[in-house]
Amino acid sequence: MKCYKAKKFAHEAKKLKVTDKLLSDTLVHFLETGDDGGQRYSLGAGLYKLRLATNEGQGKSAGSRTILAYKTDSRVIWLHLFAKNDKGNISTTELKKLKSLADILLGLSANEMARLIKLGELCEVDEHV
Asked: What does the DSSP 8-state code read for residue 21?
């Protein structure tokens, strides 16, 4: 399965010191769990909200939140990242925009995804870090 970061997400991840290793580990946990209201929340339209433990020693509940687009057995695209202490949740307007973006990105061909990478709008998550 291919794993990508949107340009904006990559910028926020750098600010919050979210590494590709943390994203890869979180993705493994995401794929192993269901929508049980624990660490993974389905927002519909292939979007999921996940907790990330970005504050050392404080656990996931005090860390950051991320929104990802997921297409079963195909691809994951990390779209949005925010620190919980900066923002409690995404707005309805943000959710609508993210759903629209997810719909577009999850429907792209491999060639179209490669073009977005070449343009710098997406980058692959290095799962071997």
From this structure: H
Residue 47 lies in a domain: yes
The CA–CA distances, whole Å, from 129 to 81, 99, 117 equal 20, 29, 19
Choice among 10-14, 66-70, 81-85, 101-105 with the minimum mean pLDDT = 81-85
Across-strand partners of 98? Answer: none
Residue 37's Cβ-side half-sphere holds a number of Cα atoms within 13 Å equal to: 0
Q: Where are the alpha helices (DSSP H) in 39-109?
A: 92-106
> How many domains does one find in the chain?
1
Among candidate residues 1, 102, 86, the one with its CA nearest the CA of residue 48:
102
Helix (H, G, I), strand (E, B) or coil at 101: helix
**Secondary structure letter of residue 73 according to DSSP:** T
For residue 62, the enclosing domain spans: 2-124
Q: What confidence category does residue 129 fall into, taking pLDDT thresholds of 50, 70 and 90?
A: low
Residue-wise pLDDT for 65-82, tens only, equals: 999 999 988 899 999 999
The answer to whether residues 36 and 42 touch, using CB atoms and an 8 Å cutoff, is no
CA 83 – CA 61 distance, rounded (Å): 11
